[in-house]
Design a protein that fits this description.
The protein is mostly helical. The protein has helices at residues 2-19, 25-30, 33-59. α1 (2-19) runs antiparallel to α3.
Length: 70
């Protein structure tokens, strides 16, 4: 989930930054879309990095089975 969410946030942030040139005035009065785009890009990169780190930790774990014969 972390990797997919990171990619989604990254794509939406980059679309807000570079693809959409004009926003309605009502939107720009409330919040700056460029700032929201940068926040989403940073959050997406962070989610990607954390997702990859968590997958790496999950793949390097070892399992030990303890058997007691009576």
């Amino acid at each position: 989930m972390g990797i997919g969410l990171g990619i989604l946030l990254l794509v939406i942030g980059l679309i807000l930054l570079f693809a959409i040139k004009e926003f309605p005035d009502a939107v720009q009065e409330v919040v700056d879309p460029g700032t929201v785009g940068w926040i989403l890009v940073v959050a997406g990169v962070l989610a990607l990095v954390l997702g990859l780190v968590m997958n790496k930790q999950r793949s390097t774990t070892t399992h030990v089975e303890e058997r007691r014969d009576l």
